[in-house]
Structure prediction request, 204 residues.
Amino acid sequence: MTPLTVRSHYSLMWGTCAPAAICAAARQRGYSRLALTDADNLYGLWPFLDGCEAEGLQPIVGAEVTAPKSPLRAVCLVENPVGYRNLCGLITRRHCDPEFDLESGVTRHAEGLVVLTRSPELLARWHHAGLAVYGALPRRPDGAALRLRQAARRLGVPTVATPGSFFLDPAEFSLHRVLRAIAGNTTLDRLPAGAAAPADAWLA
Prediction:
């Protein structure tokens, strides 16, 4: 089992920990491989690679790419140097293009990447476009997860578990909520439902 959706404090106002601390915890908890997938950036890449080397972990380079005007997102994992170059290009386009479209952007930069999505529609379109795409099952199954499983089964596409980690231990949930309140310019008691990750979104 390999954690594929882990965020560090480079996912600003979401993650709570430095890449080195995440790597140390992952080794302590028995993992041999680990992906770091911060949102729309690779700022933590070099500390992550150093941490993996120090802990004897096999690193998986990646990022979660979001859509600025919709809730759609995709986790892109690097397979080879071409994939790394494409991920850098995709993230650059995400930041520089005010009309950035996730579906076409990922399709254009897909070579050398493995793409994980929770959207049944994107799963089907990216599969038909020839991308290496997987269904990404969330921590808490719901109706959308059921539709994703059904779509993946119909298409013959594999699914992977992506519970998502934003902090290392349950005690850090309160810090995560403080960060989310700061990001929303609100107080903890007014933090909207869904504005923070669930309390069990730690690296188990």
Notes: The chain has a mean pLDDT of 96.
